[in-house]
Every structure is written in C-alpha cells, then in structure tokens.
Amino acid sequence: MHLIVLFVSRTFRNSSLTLALMNESEKIRVAFERSHKALSLKPSLGLGTGISKTRIENGLTCRVSEGPWELNADMPEAAGGNSAGPTPGVYGRAALGSCLAIGYMMRASKNKINIHSLEVEVQASYDDGPLFGTRNDVPPGYTQVKYIVTIESDAPEEEIMKILDEGDEHSPYLDVFTRSQSCVREVKIITPKEV
Fold first, then answer.
1. Residue 148 bridge partners (DSSP)
2. What is the DSSP code (8-state) at residue 47?
3. What is the pLDDT of residue 12?
4. Which residues of 134-157 are buried (b: 16+ CB within 10 A; e: fewer)?
5. 28: part of which helix (H) or strand (E)?
6. Which of these, 62, 105, 158, 163, is most buried using a 10 Å CB contact count?
7. In terms of Cα–Cα distance, which of 128, 159, 121, 162 is closest to 142?
8. pLDDT tens digit string along 71-124?
9. Residue 12: what are its φ and ψ, rounded to 5°?
10. What DSSP assignment string belongs to 115-128?
11. Distance CA 83, CA 81 (A)
C-alpha cells in the first residue's frame, strides 16, 4: 500500500510539475506573440533607454539602482574592496547567461517545444594585469567568453538546435558581448560648497 501511495504521489507531483511547466510555457508563448504583434504594428514601442545609477558608498562598494531594483557590487578585499557584493564581472556574466536562458525559453515556448530544464554556464577568461597597470599588451576585458548550454527536452535535436540558434541571433546581451558599442562619456563636476 505504501508503494502505491508513493507511486501515486510521485506521479501526481510529476504531473503537477509538467502542468506547471506547460502553463508557464503557454504564458511565455502568449506574451511573446502579443509583443511580436504590437511591435510589428508599431515598431516605436520597442524603443527605450535603460537607466541604471551606480553610487560609491564605502571604499569600492557600489549601490546600483534601476527602477525598483537595488543591488550591491564590490571587489574582493584582496583588491581593496569590502566583499559586500558580487564583482561587476559576476553581473556581466549573469546578464549574458540569463539573457541567453530567457531567450531560449521564449523561443522554445513560441515553437511549442517542451523544455524540462535549461542551464547556461558562462566561462569568461581574463587577465587582471591591465586593471592593475602591470600589462598593456592585452585588453582589460575578457580574452574569451564561452557559454555552455545544458538542456533537457524530448524534442528532436534539430528542433532544439533551431531554438538555440534563434535565441543566439536575437539575444541582446550576446550582441553586446560580440559587437562594439558606441560608448559616450559625459562628465559633471560638482564643486563642494564651502560652509
């Protein structure tokens, strides 16, 4: 009897998980189609400017805010920081990995491909020499970025590869990592008022 209950319980949990995944996939698909239609009818809806503000709070500890979101960034103590948050590199790799993962799931949902699990691991090779001024012969950024996609699905390999290729082609952060951007610096100098 306990085995039957255990089997029924596991089957119910697996069914619930499958149903929950299907409901999430359907929600993503409907939102994707709605956004696609709106942007097709009025492309200007897709234009915008994201604005994040970063303020040094203590030593190298930064408070980053955008809209309702706040997070810390810092450097390890060995680099003069307080270890009060992840380094900017962690956030950069997280931005790329999460952007890719989200894009893959959007494409899978759009194409009605069932994904049981998906993980993107980002490996970025770097040399800290340029940051600390000991090397000028290599760039201060990454020398190579590799991303490993682990995906569990019963879909045929060619369908999975198609959604991964589409996801890469349309990924904003993969584009940021692979294409030179126009970066414009503007400086505002404030002179402290004498008391």
1. 121
2. -
3. 42
4. eeeeeeeebeebebebebebebee
5. helix 2-41
6. 163
7. 128
8. 999 999 999 999 999 999 999 999 999 999 999 999 999 999 999 999 999 999
9. -65, -45
10. -SEEEEEEEEE--S
11. 6
Please determine, for residue 19, whether its predicted confidence score (pLDDT) is greater than 70.
no
Q: What is the pLDDT of residue 101?
A: 97
C-alpha triplet 116, 119, 124: angle, nearest 5°: 170
Asked if the model's pLDDT at residue 27 lies above 50, the reply is: yes
Question: What is the DSSP secondary-structure string of 139-184?
Answer: -SS-SEEEEEEEEE-SS-HHHHHHHHHHHHHT-HHHHHHHS-----
Pairing of strands 117-125, 144-152: antiparallel
pLDDT over 60 at 54, yes or no: yes
Half-sphere exposure of 62 (CA within 13 A, CB side): 14
State the residue for tokens 């698909």.
29
Q: Which residue has the tokens 């030593």?
A: 59
pTM: 0.81
